[in-house]
Write a structure and sequence with these properties.
Layout lengths: L5 H20 L5 H8 L4 H29 L3 H14 L9 H28 L6 H28 L4 H7 L1 H14 L14 H4 L3 H16 L4 H9 L7 H26 L1 H20 L7 H25 L6 H30 L1 H19 L8
Amino acid sequence: MILPNAKRNVLALGLVSFFNDIGSEMIFPLLPLFITITLGAPVAVLGLIEGIAESAAALLKMGSGTLSDKVGKRKAIVVSGYSLSALAKPFFALATIWQHVLAVRFLDRVGKGVRDAPRDALLAASAKDSRRGRSFGFVQAMDRGGAIAGTLIATALLAMAFNYRQIFLLAFIPSLLAVVVAALFVKEIAHAPLKRLEWPWKNHFGAELKKFLLVAGLFNVANFSYAFYLLKAQQAGLAVVLIPMLYLTYTVCYALAAYPVGRLSDSIGRKKVIGIGYALFALTAAGFATLTGTAMLWPLFVLYGIQIAFTDSVSRAFVSDMVEDKRRGSALGAYHMTVGLAVLPASVIAGFVWDAFGSAMTFSLAAVVAMMALLLLATVKGKVR
């Protein structure tokens, strides 16, 4: 039986993600160009900013997830995280050097770090086991729907001669709406609190969950920031004005695939779906490594979007399946932390390899690491649907 407030929560959390991502995607597709062109920073700095910000968020995800298990409530933590990210948005417009962007990006990611694990745990509690994949897929589809809207708004504003800084200021409006929806419409689903806080790796998790966390960490060393894919498009000769539309193509494919892929994981099992995603990522990275012109950019970005649908929300549903509800915040926090910590070496290494050896080597290494993760995934046991 679905818990009280469950169906409403899935919808409400979807709307929160939708509005929050409108604000985020009005900014983030433009941020690589703002950093490297407007502020004149090298590509390696872009990797450093992304890596530090995401890794800081990752460390907080572990703490916020465990805290939500301890107190037995999650909504207040979720709302505070979305609020912090919303407040950070306008400050991108004030940046005059790349260090300013690093500070604001850091603050924005702190908000993400606070909210993600408790939000996912609340979402997992709002769905039956047999429908968990599609619930995660629905929220992810709404998230990407917001990204589509945000990208279209940013593109329209660019066409209307708004500059980057003006667009960054306007991004605060939908981000604020996300906070309002979270505060008013997301309902708490209480759970039995943990009696004491402890380092979750020690006693909370079984061997298979620990093994999957290591596999996910390895895969995400290959899965560096999307910013590098956008820079590759510019390097291949695509006009700057088309960059947001290319990003939109990727986002639409991600959004369209998220829910059916989640349902597929309910039917054939999460592990199989994740394995398909790893293989698709390796194929995508190999395609970018051999890219010489703009003709293949669009189909490659289609593939890039589809593969993320196979690996992102399904992995979180997979982790949710492996633990009881009162430990779910800790488990999801550990997953988010593992993935986020992998982003620092992923983005930093990608930036330095790009500068030293070129983009082809960067994407080739990503393909190899992804295939290694696929081989190790075969050793993980999980629930079979």
